[in-house]
Write a structure and sequence with these properties.
Blueprint (H helix, E strand, L loop, with lengths): L32 E5 L6 E6 L2 E4 L9 H10 L5 H5 L2 H15 L6 H4 L1 H4 E3 L4 E3 L7 E5 L2 H11 L14 E4 L5 E3 L4 E2 L2 E5 L5 E5 L3 E2 L2 E7 L18 E9 L1 E2 H7 L12 E3 L4 E2 L7 E2 L18 H6 L1 E2 L1 E8 L1 H6 L4 E7 L7 H9 L10 E3 L14 H4 L7 E2 L5 E2 L7 E8 L7 E11 L7
Parallel strand pairs: 6-22, 8-16, 9-26
Antiparallel strand pairs: 1-2, 1-5, 2-3, 3-4, 6-7, 10-11, 12-15, 13-14, 13-22, 14-16, 14-17, 18-19, 20-21, 20-25, 23-24, 25-26
Helix pairs in contact: 1-3
Length: about 450
């Protein structure tokens, strides 16, 4: 596990004023990696600080050793080369930037701030990595059991759920960076009147998740044990697994297909495991009669601090809210700790049969629902599959998402004695379905 160091010092402040605000997602204790685009240019690697981005290409002369190795790898149009290096070079770069950005530190970066710092408001954030494979897990027992009461009333939790992290291979090609619109999918589904139809989904939903970007990965046929898996885990983001529930219910003989591949939105900043070190938490507490993890998924360190204490929220902003200048309505307040399995267990299980993961591959945690009504992390749960619509702040109701609705996720890690850090925003707006070609 990553140890605490000077970059986590709660007394450290930055000469970038916005980074010192109490509600800032990107204080000097965070320093996440991302890729930004300026008008007329290709993607460039950068690091977030307050409301600014450190342009790594412009600051390259300020780095040496492992920090230079990481900055060079991260400066291109994707972060895959940085992820492939593992955590040590990224940690060295993060330490050097923390020193350069702190009040009272070397003024090398401050002297070139006019060209090395880029206002976030002036750029567009894009996907941080090329993702060759995206696997989505099902690791909240609360989410799984609520859904199972309808589809599997005799056995709400699949028999294997408490023995292994359940997952399916999703579609990497339809990953979208936060801010990209989501087109309502056409699909085949069975109407309540018994007719099988093809057309726009009438039950479009969100799923509030956390994503993990894989670092160095593994070779085909070479599993990685729990004791070594932390070195293969690079960083984290927010993830919206958009889901067409009517299509999903009809097609899922072998699992989800077109109901999930329409789009998946992620937040563009990759929060490193090192930045999240102060917010580690014990693994989900198992009931006395639950099976203990099999030896290949059992690790004392992971059980003690393999989870993260991250508060997750989902909001809906309707067209009427935007027109009236009203804020979005919060519909979910949950915590990542509610998930039954840790990311280390997910990654280890994924590689246990020799499946090769590659730098930039993405694992989704599954819907991060908790035990309470307000912690239901999708509309399917929150509205009892559309039967009990939510009442939003402005009096509107929603059973499922409507065209023009914007879904916004936020995530924040906080703990007494440390500076809170955030993930930025994962947002997407629903567009009307395309007319089927004649």
């Amino acid at each position: 596990m990553t140890m605490l160091n000077d970059t986590h010092d709660p007394k450290r402040r930055s000469w970038v004023a916005a980074a010192n605000s109490a509600d800032c997602d990107f204080p000097i204790q965070n320093l996440p990696f991302g890729v930004f685009v300026r008008a007329g240019s290709a993607g460039q690697g950068g690091v977030a600080i307050g409301d600014q981005i450190v342009d790594l290409s412009a600051a390259m002369a300020l780095f040496s050793g492992n920090a230079l190795l990481a900055a060079t790898a991260a400066a291109g149009p994707t972060l895959n080369k940085l992820m492939a290096l593992g955590n040590a070079p990224a940690s060295a770069l993060r330490a050097r930037l923390s020193d350069l950005l702190r009040e009272g530190g070397p003024d090398d970066l401050r002297r070139i701030a006019d060209r090395a710092l880029v206002p976030m408001a002036d750029v567009t954030m894009v996907l941080p990595a090329h993702t060759g494979a995206f696997t989505d897990f099902l690791t909240s027992s609360y989410h799984t059991e609520r859904g199972g009461r309808v589809s599997r009333p005799d056995s709400p939790l699949p028999p294997c759920f408490k023995y292994l992290p359940v997952a399916y291979n999703s579609r990497a090609s339809s990953l979208r960076a936060s801010g990209a619109n989501i087109v309502r999918p056409n699909g085949q589904w069975k109407h309540p009147d018994g007719q099988v139809r093809f057309g726009p989904s009438e039950a479009l939903d969100f799923e509030l998740e956390v994503g993990l970007f894989i670092g160095p990965g593994n070779d085909v046929g070479a599993p990685v044990p729990m004791s070594q898996v932390q070195d293969r885990m690079f960083g984290y983001c927010l993830l919206n697994d958009w889901s067409a529930r009517d299509i999903q219910a009809w097609e899922s003989a072998l699992g989800p297909f077109l109901s999930k591949s329409l789009s998946t939105s992620i937040s563009p900043w990759v929060i490193t495991g090192e930045a999240l070190a102060p917010f580690r938490a014990p693994a989900f507490p198992r009931a006395p009669d639950d099976p203990q993890p099999l030896p290949y998924l059992a690790d004392a360190g992971d059980q003690a601090s393999g989870h993260f204490d991250i508060v997750l929220e989902a909001f809906i902003r309707t067209p009427n809210m935007r027109a009236a200048g009203q804020p979005a309505s919060r519909v979910t307040l949950t915590n990542f700790q509610h998930n039954y399995w840790t990311f280390a267990q997910m990654a280890t299980h994924h590689m246990s049969n020799g499946c090769n993961l590659e730098p930039g591959d993405l694992l989704g945690s599954g819907t991060a629902s908790g035990p309470t009504d307000d912690s239901r992390a999708c509309l399917s749960e929150a509205t009892e599959r559309g039967k009990m619509p939510l009442v939003l702040n402005n009096g509107e109701t929603r059973g499922w998402l409507r065209d023009g609705d914007e879904v916004i996720f936020t995530g924040r890690a906080s703990r007494a004695g440390f500076v809170s850090i955030g993930f930025g925003v994962c947002a997407g707006m629903v567009e009307a379905a395309v007319a089927w070609p004649q």
